[in-house]
Amino acid sequence: MTLAHPGTLRGRLVTLEPLALEQHDELVAAARDGELWRLWYTSIPSPDAMDAEIRRRLRLQEAGSMLPFTARRADTGRVIGMTTFMNIDATTPRVEIGSTWNAASAHGTGTNAESKLLLLAHAFEVWDCPAVEFRTDFHNHQSRAAIARLGAKQDGVLRAHLRPAAGYVRDTVVFSITRPEWPGVRLGLEHRVARHLPDAGGAPGLG
After folding, report:
1. Is-contact 53 45, C-beta < 8 A?
2. What is the number of structural domains in the chain?
3. pTM of the full predicted structure?
4. 8 Å CB contact between 17 and 67
5. Among candidates 96, 81, 78, which has minimal Cα distance to 19?
6. Which residues belong to any copy of the N-acetyltransferase domain (predicted)?
7. In a domain, 131, yes or no
8. What string of pLDDT tens digits covers the 207 residues of the chain?
9. How far apart are CA 204 and CA 64, in angstroms?
10. Is residue 2 part of a domain?
């Protein structure tokens, strides 16, 4: 049993497109916006590693464990990052939303909030998932705060969970949103997105 890729998910601030090799140069430009790969507690591909990362995600898609997307701003058409459904359990069904990064200039624009809204809506309302999971490095306080702002609750910390780099063993913080919590989470995300729409006057920094 597998979960099919939902294809393109369209919002008012962001569009999530199926990841493709043809997006390589645009993704490199997005990663260079803030030189995000230099953050030691994240796993964002450098320009030289982007092709390998795209191919890795596409291999995982073929294996049925990941459904990857490229995020594109709706107003300019500019690629701003990547996100995925990953660690897919199609039987339950249950998914993790992760392997996400966004260009520095996209932070605080509402695009990340709407990306999560699009993905969570598909997971809960189309796939009928009982829960959706988020994971991040214990030291990535920005990511932990962003996940908590979604309305996700912390389940726990997996100690000495992964070895993402030589000499470093990561503690992983696990969060989740359950189906009964989804209506409230949805309202919160819709409110955050609405504050960034042109007809709402915009409110920078509230993404």
Report:
1. yes
2. 1
3. 0.90
4. no
5. 81
6. 14-153
7. yes
8. 679 999 999 999 999 999 999 999 999 999 999 787 776 666 788 899 999 999 999 999 999 999 999 999 999 999 999 999 999 999 999 999 999 999 999 999 999 999 999 999 999 999 999 999 999 989 888 889 989 999 999 999 999 887 876 678 889 999 999 999 999 999 999 999 999 998 755 444 334
9. 38
10. no
Do strands 94-102 and 131-137 pair parallel, antiparallel, or not at all (unpaired)? Answer: parallel
Tell me the C-alpha distance between 30 and 72, whole Å: 10
Separation of alpha carbons 81 and 83, rounded Å: 7
Residue 115 Cα distances to 15, 97, 98, 142, 190, angstroms: 8, 10, 11, 17, 11
Helical segments of the chain, H only:
24-32, 50-63, 111-125, 141-150, 182-194
DSSP 7: -
Residue with tokens 């997996």: 158
4 within domain boundaries = no
CATH of the domain at 41: 3.40.630.30
